[in-house]
Write a structure and sequence with these properties.
about 0% strand, elongated, 2 domains, about 55% helix, mainly alpha, about 100 residues
Length: about 100
């Protein structure tokens, strides 16, 4: 299947209904996924064994054709800080005897 797609010219390929995989075969997608996972495990190992204060950069996944950019996942520390801030605001409002808006709950 990949060989057939590779032999098509770009206009001919664009006319075909996209399946979301672009010119990559399932095997190529699996190899890219394996590469991403190994890079993540290497990063995790490096993060755990890095000297104090050193924070290795998280690896970026291999871009796949036909797959849009993934949204950024907010780090746990940021999510916890947001929850702490909301909790502080709710406690403040409750102590003052004011109503708590639904968006804070």
């Amino acid at each position: 299947m990949t060989e057939i797609r590779d032999q098509m010219d770009p206009a001919e390929f664009a006319a075909i209904e996209p399946s979301g995989h672009g010119r990559w075969s399932q095997a190529e997608l699996l190899v890219a996924t394996l590469n991403d996972r190994v890079a993540e495990l290497t990063w995790l190992y490096s993060s755990v064994h890095a000297p104090k204060g050193v924070k290795p950069k998280r690896p970026k996944p291999i871009p796949r054709p036909g797959v849009g950019a993934q949204r950024r996942i907010q780090p746990l520390e940021e999510r916890l800080a947001a929850v702490d801030e909301r909790t502080r605001k709710v406690a403040e409002l409750m102590r003052a005897g004011k109503p708590v808006p639904p968006e804070l709950l």
